[in-house]
Amino acid sequence: MAEIDTLLARLRESPVHPGLDGLDAAVMAELAGRRAGPQLGGGAFILAATLALAIGIVGSAVPGAPARAAPVAPFGTAPMLAPSTLLGTGE
What we know:
4 helices, mainly alpha
């Protein structure tokens, strides 16, 4: 562990590589020069919200079948004193 501390201390004390000089300015200039993608208007967001609302209302109005889980016993029969059998099936 002391070797890592020594190496990190040497790295901290070493001078900055000359190639990194001005890197921040170059990155910021590149970001400023990039154009943003196409902007969507408010109508697109209204359309998406209306479509999501309609899908939600229709989805909640359509009745679904109740889900029933089948018991799974990986080694044949289920153990009689397993916590899942002691809690009951909820029927």
